[in-house]
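ASSEMBLY PREDICTION REQUEST
Request ID: AP-0331
Submitted by: J.K., bench scientist
Number of chains: two
Total residues: 231
Priority: normal
Notes: Please return the full assembly, not individual chains.
Input sequences:
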Amino acid sequence: QVQLVESGGGVVQPGTSLRLSCAASGFTFRTYAMHWVRQAPGKGLEWVAFMSSDGHNKYYADSVKGRFTISRDNSNNTLYLQLNGLRAEDTAVYYCAKREFNWNYLDYWGQGTLVTVSS
Amino acid sequence: DIVMTQSPDSLAVSLGERATFNCKSSQSVLYTSSYRNCLAWYQQKPGQPPKLLISWASTRESGVPDRFSGSGSGTDFTLTITHLQAEDVAVYYCQQYYSDPCTFGQGTKLEI
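STATUS: Completed
Returned structure:
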C-alpha cells in the first residue's frame, strides 16, 4: 500500500533553515509527480510546491518562492523540501502528497510534519 | 489563480440526515476536451491528513461509501452526504486542478 512518511519538522527561530523529507513506498515513486501542502494551526490547506516525476519541472506558491526549494531523489524514493528564511507565518503542518498520474489531484497524503517558527 | 469559495463555513446536521456542501470557483474548471470538471473533494478528520473522496467532481474513490456524492459543473459544485454517520465529522475541502497552481477552498466544518 502507498505510504508517505514525512520527517524533519521541529521548532526553529525566524530566519533559520530546515529540510523536510518524505519517504515514499508502495508505488513506483519515480513515475509520479509530488506536492507539498501545508496547514497552519486551525487553518485550511495551502498548496506549497510541486515537482514533476523526473525533477525537471517545479513550481512554488508565491508565499514561499525564493525561500523554499523542492527536490527529489528517485533512487531513494524520497521527496524533500528545503525551507530557508523561515518566518512565523510558515508555522504549519507540512504534508507531502502524491499526485494522480496525469492530474493535480492528490490521491495519497502523508501524516505530516510540524514546523514551528518562533523566537 | 483560481479562487475556490466554500459555503457554509460550518454545518450542523443530525445523524441520519443529509449534509450539503457548496464550492464555487472563480472561473470554470471544465476541461472541454473531455467534458470533465477538474474538481476534487477531500475529507479531513481531526488529527488526520486529508483523504481524497471524489475526483472529476463526481467520481468516488475506491472504498468511499456511496453515501458520498458529488455534482456540479463549470463553477458550481456540491458534495452531498446522505444518511449522516458520526464518523463523518470532519472538515471538507474542495480543490480545483484545472490550472496551476491547484487551489483549495477554505473548508466546511461538519458537526453532528
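REVIEWER COMMENTS: Chain A touches chain B through 20 residues (CB under 8 Å).
SIGN-OFF: pending second reviewer
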